[in-house]
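Working notes for the structural subgroup meeting. M.R. asked for a predicted model of this chain before we commit to crystallization trials. I am recording the input and output together here so anyone reviewing the notebook later can reproduce the run.

Input as submitted:
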Amino acid sequence: MQKVIVPDSVSSRYVDMRIDKYLNTARLRLQYGGEESQARLAAAARADLEFETPVAIESASAFGSSTQGFVYYYRYFAFAVLAMIMMGVSSIMMAFNKPDLYRRNLCAPIPARSMSLQLAAGHGVFALGCWALLVSASSALYGKSLLSSGLMWLYCLNSLAFT
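Returned structure, recorded in token form:
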């Protein structure tokens, strides 16, 4: 078998895919179907490949256009909130783990467990503050279109679950 194609073109990829599909179908027929003659094997492989399945690709989602700005905003929301929380919590932990402050906290009449729980609660409040800041920014940027879509509360709950 010989083929003449233009290198790195879409049509050559399509031809290669069709040839591979035909050869794989023939190989499966030979391996599992028990076809003995080449003519019957080729006819069976061609018959298997004649079936086509109609595929319809819809360009818009069920709730409207998926290219609205707030959709992209909330797709990347998780990255922004994660970066904000990591930067804030790491800065707080670096400040609390400085030797002088750390020793002073150890001398305090508060148990270490209570201090750790207070620090964790502070981190939680900081994370909620970051989330609220980014949600309010989305409301400021995309207020009318976000509210009219009816998806604002779903996006807010989804982003809160990540936070």
